From TrEMBL:
Name used for this protein in its record: Sugar ABC transporter substrate-binding protein
Short name of one Pfam family: SBP_bac_1
Lineage: superkingdom: Bacteria
Organism: Fredinandcohnia quinoae
InterPro entries (alphabetical): Bact_solute-bd_prot1 (IPR050490), SBP (IPR006059)
């Protein structure tokens, strides 16, 4: 009897094992149905990779909703890469930089960021990013100007994929000059629109006299945001450079740089500059212009013109202009450059997934051009032109010839920029002369460059 029970038990165990084996084979066959030999379903790996994409509002908002367009990009991307889940987080230009610093400090960095060289290259120098060299075959490198690639690299390694660009310059409310009958004071009849500081000052005086309710021009010195506008303005007003040509030390405390800052100080005293500019932020300056309360904005570009369009509270025509120079010679314009980078979060699969998203945003046959237009910028590629219609975009393309090397790639730049606005405040408030303020800035900035080289 005992033997029979043992045989029965053994039979039941064997039956159970056999049934589990059959179920297992059935599931395996079902899971592999339609896959190729590599376990791929023809749309990428079946294993889901989850990445986080942080971005400033680099694309124009759809229906006034930030992030709506970015979500459309992700939806289109997932049709080609369903195996990659993208978590989007929108960050603001005001609080975003600090949020990024906190994320880096706490080892919770996003996998991908869409930003500008000022921060991206600083992170690269701190070994926080993944190199993107494998995304840059020779035909791509040759299609991007050396000035833009220089902003995207540290040594021989590429850390930012350049996407949209355009020279930073000024803008004027053309409508105001039409209303006061002084349109001929603007250099709009010149193909390159170059002009002198004296011509610019005459235009400002005309606004002050004939449109007393309008502030002639703007300036700001409250925080680091928009520092490129104040740099470009002052260096061109005095015919100077911000740093010397090899980025080894500050050049803005030269006679030309001092002359440029002195002009701003004197113009403030004459009422040609927005009052209280020492306590205005770049966003305050922008608001004055977009509200039609100020004739000239000193920090503009084709990209910003497009992004600012929904924020206009009155209708007027904003026209791009280069910064004036003492003798009307060609200005030196820093390039706006937006691009994407991948943080090194010690996960190769996430890094590769992030690179696929970058490639889709920039190079997809359908979405690449669509995404570029949504930024309002020109393409970083020399071969991609004529994307837009309209005189201002045509002028922005022409003004590319004025692009110069920006100081953002200098060693220690992240620290350098923190000393810049206090120096401007000191000069505007009169606590130091322009020379004293710039010499003090140079001393601190040169030390930051030195420390940056030693790291």
């Amino acid at each position: 009897m005992v033997g029979v029970k043992r045989k029965l038990t053994l039979f039941m165990v064997m039956t159970l094992i056999l049934s589990l084996f059959i179920v297992g084979c059935s599931n395996t066959t079902s899971e592999n149905k339609g896959k190729d030999d590599n376990g791929d379903n023809g749309q990428g790996s079946s294993e889901t990779v989850e990445i986080t994409w942080w971005t400033f509002p680099n694309f124009q908002a759809l229906d006034g909703e930030l992030g709506k367009y970015e979500k459309q990009i992700i939806e289109a991307f997932n049709k080609k890469h369903p195996e990659i889940k993208v978590n989007l987080e929108m960050i603001s230009f005001e609080g975003g930089p600090e949020k990024l610093n906190l994320a880096i400090a706490s080892n919770t960095s996003p996998d991908m960021i869409y930003d500008a060289p000022g921060r991206i290259i600083d992170w690269a120098k701190k070994d926080l990013l993944m190199p993107l060299n494998d995304m840059f075959p020779k035909e791509v490198m040759d299609d991007i100007s050396p000035a833009l690639m220089k902003q995207s690299m540290v040594g021989d390694d590429v850390y930012m994929y350049p996407f949209n660009t355009g020279p930073f310059m000024m803008a004027v409310n053309k409508t105001i000059f039409e209303e006061i009958g002084e349109l001929d004071l603007l250099p709009l009849d010149r193909p390159d629109r170059t002009w002198t500081v004296d011509e610019y000052e005459k235009a400002l005086l005309a606004v002050k006299e004939k449109a007393p309710d309008v502030i002639p021009s703007g300036f700001y010195a409250k925080s680091v945001a928009g520092d490129q506008g104040t740099r470009g303005y002052i260096t061109n007003l005095g015919g100077s450079r911000f740093l010397n040509e090899d980025y080894s030390e500050v050049a803005i405390n030269s006679p030309g740089g001092v002359k440029g800052l002195e002009w701003v100080v004197e113009a403030s005293k004459k009422g040609l500059v927005a009052p209280g500019s020492a306590s205005l932020a770049a966003s305050d300056h922008n608001d004055l212009f977009l509200q039609g309360k100020m004739a000239f904005a000193i920090n503009y570009s084709a990209v910003l013109k497009s992004l600012f369009a929904p924020d206009k509270t009155v209708e007027f025509e904003d026209i791009l202009l280069p910064y004036p120079t003492p003798d009307g010679s060609d200005p030196k314009l820093e390039p706006f450059l937006g691009g994407m980078a991948v943080f090194n979060n010690d996960d190769d699969k996430k890094a590769e997934a992030a690179k696929k998203l970058i490639d889709f945003i920039v190079n997809d046959p359908e979405w690449g051009k669509k995404n570029l237009i949504q930024t309002g910028g020109l393409s970083a590629r020399n071969s991609i032109t004529g994307v837009y219609e309209g005189s201002e975009y045509e002028y922005s393309e022409l003004a590319r010839k004025f692009i110069t090397d920006p100081p953002t790639i200098a060693d220690g730049y992240a620290e350098i920029r923190t000393f810049w606005f206090p120096a401007l405040q000191e000069a505007i408030l009169g606590t130091k002369t322009a020379q004293e303020a710039l010499d003090n800035f140079a001393e601190k900035a040169n030390e930051a460059i030195k420390k940056g080289k030693e790291k």
